[in-house]
Amino acid sequence: MSNFLYSVKYFFILDNKGNRIIAKYYSNDFENVNKQKAFEKRIFEKTAKAYSNVIIYVVGDRDQNELALLHVINSFTETLHSLSENGINKKTILDNINLTLLTLDEIIDEGIVLESDPTVIADRVGIRVEGEQDDLDQSISQVITSANNFLKYLNK
Amino acid sequence: MGRFEKKDDDEYEYPFEHLDKGQVVQEKRVFNDTQIHPRKCSFVISEFLYLLARGDTFTKTEATDVFFAATKLFQSKDIPLRRMTYLLLKEFSTISQDAIIVTSSLIKDMSHKIELYRANSIRILCKIIDASSLPQLERHFKQSIVEKDPHVSSAALVSSIHLLRVAPDTVKRWANEVQEAISNKSNMVQYHALALLHRIKQHDRLAVTKLVSSLIRGSLRSPYAQCYLIRCAVEVIEETNTEDRTFYDYIESCLRNRNEMVAYEAARSICSLKNASLKELTSAVGILQLFLSSSKPTLRFAAVRTLNKLAQTNPLAVVPCNLDMENLISDSNRSIATLAITTLLKIGNESNVERLIKQISNFLGDINDEFKIVVVESITMLSVKFPKKFKHLIIFLNKILRDEGSLQLKQTTLDAILNVVNHIPESKEIALNELCDFIEDCEYPDLSVQILHLLGQEGPLTSSPSKYIRYIYNRISLDSGTIRAAAVTSIAKFGLLYEPMRQKVVILIQRCLLDEDDEVRDRATLYLRLFKEDNIKLLGRILLDDVHVPMLNLQRSLETYLESPAAEPFDISKVSTVIEAHSPVLGDKGSSKPSSTANTPKAMSLAGSDKPAAATGQSAQEAYAAQLAAISNFATYGKLLKSSELVELTETETEYVVSCVKHVFQEHLVFQFNVTNTLNDQLLENVYVKMVPSNSKLVKYEFHLLIESLPYGEPHSCYVSVRIPPGAYPTLSFTNMLKFKVREVDPSTGEPDEGGFDEQYNIEDLEVVPKDYMLRAVCPNFQEEWKRLPEDIQSIQTFGLVSIKNIDDAIKEIIKTLSMAPCEKSEVAQPKANKHILYLSGRFVNGTAVLTRARMKIDGSGQSVDVELTVKSEDEIINEFVSSAFA
After folding, report:
1. Is the pLDDT of residue B298 over 90?
2. Alpha-carbon distance A45 to nearest alpha carbon in chain B (angstroms)
């Protein structure tokens, strides 16, 4: 049976120069960190660049349900969205590196999606949600664009 | 990409930018303070975690230090700090030594009143526990699994999934608790429980069927669980060939699920079913069609990708989406657009293909070279499907060739044109005309040389050869040395192949005698002399015959020769004639993936290990020869005559993966078994393969070489050597058993246990067949050789290739069975031909040249292909032997 359970193979966030900010590899496909980074560079070169200074990538198997991966990226960004008014960028990620990594840890356990509801995740991580998030919809659509940019590599 | 911030941030100094590992390791002393400062400690933990996420590595000693320093933080009651401590311990548990020591603290936390403690302690525990101590914790695990709190229950279930690899027998005892968890209210718990239960029962097909059929009647609400269940249902349908429609009906009902992920999973599953009927596909395609016009790019992408795949096997089912696909050609996301185009090309028909090509031409300017290459490759496929449309195809390809573009794109395009020319003879003249125009201002000398070569080869055979000469001669007056040399040769070919022009050609060549380039002058002088002597035969050999050995091998041999020049001159007869497996001569170029696309990481990681040929660029045979020469036991065996392709003896997903290469020596057969241990909790020792021959009189067992230690994940080879009588080429089969000693390994530390036990593992039978003694060897003038070889000892046999329904497959089958090299481009049949003649040449391991001719014809019923196989060589016994491959 093709593997739905181990949805995520790799998760990484690169800056606008293609340098790694953080990364997590859930399968041993690469011998060492340098090979991982070379892979990230290759994908970055194929990514259409936009205005942001970070790009979030979730990589799954070629048989993976693309929308399941989109959910992962949505859960991640929606959870972190409440951190800063400016939304997610290199500064908020690094300023809140503890919350960023905890969020990732609560969403993915060894490649398996552990939780997907942003409110639940924020609660487990200890992010205090203040007020309503009016622009949630907008952020979703942004995230979809981003998800799409890595999905195409799965087709290769 | 999220447009989250537009500020220019180049000068901004980010936190942690210059974080240094050594400094952070020093900072960990705050963990030791008698009065623990939660904020300070949390910050240092963040630093450690960031270092790991950034890619810094820690040695075992460093990691152990950090791990144990952090255990001190269990004393603090600060909840945020505890959460960070858990993450730190979890991340370092796998690199640190003796992590198992924190077990007792974690067990205490497993019954703590705060859920966060219970959930996270269990997640760490599953990483450090080993199979022998797990039974003592069973009670805790079972309790956590059935907890109401979803955080704890999910953590316990997912941890149990991980533990299945370490201690499957223990985890399997928890099935009742897991079953209970499926009815938990939380979506995620449902999902994790279902996944674990399915995995527990995985090897019991009946139990899986029962589980799935009970759940599809129930009411799982979790979208993840529903997706998982759909995949289980597909598995049941495919593996049991059940007549029961309930499984399919469930998947179909999911098409109408409100959650897009579930609806999409259902649709793509139906599309992937092997025996889906057109009617069944229609409803799935209908859903995907809706997605095609979604405002969300991921949805459009997912749908078009699935339809693209479906179009390969079932183009008719995708036709209803034609219009929506056409709209996607201009999609702002280029991946979607490209997939749409290639899908359209796959489902196109004779009547709309012209319009389609036009439409694509219109937007060519917007896409980059990489996507153009994909388009060019799909267009090439079309030439096979719609040979009548060659004119449009050639014009389209030529447009790409003329536009700005990288060398890679242009080379792909030129290859595509050559492909069309090879397939459709009528296209030759129009293609040549276009290419003549192209070389007038071609920026890549490589391409010019290839085109000049083609013009020389095909031009003289067209209806009006004279018109090409002007284009070729222009190159002599305008271009660089390499191109001029190619042009001289090209012109000489016209003189050779088209007699009416010979005089004019001689005059043109005369003009090149004073060329400033040595190569051009040399070529001109040689050709001129031969023309004047009227030595057409020699001229023909020089101009038309290819070198008798593959170019790649020749190049490599020459390079080796130059590195260490020997006293004797270079001897071309010593160059290997074995053609690489990837040689385009096999004619399956269209189906192979282009090298331009990104390698999957898996392919990259494999390249280094068990496929020596790919990594080093030398031929597989040479690599094996070097590998075996390094083993002293084989030193006296003489030259390696032939190495077979890799034969898989297990499925690739099994515990131990075994493949075999058969090596033939003068008086020995050596079997090289490549063994990979895929279990991270086992270390194998003294691994060897016990082989039992089907006929023990034919071979005599000599010795075996075992693998002393086979750790998880590293492929190693063991060998068995048998002696064969001189001059004999036995064919027989072997039943095989992998034998070894197992030692349990703690996956967290990598330390093997003492002791261990002997174990054996069934692997598939291995056959030694005639092709194992045959080398591919090109024969440049097949027909002449064929006439020369004696007819009275040739072997003729006729047989039917059952269940092969077309000529292309028959060609592939014959080449595969004989392992010989196709000659005279006979591996390419006319499109839709119902008969064909295939010429093959090879060299038997004793050096005898062997030629075969296979005449084939599709049987009247259309269910098989009839073949008449003639084998010729100087040796009657070899003829019979080669034929016996089809006996």
Report:
1. yes
2. 11
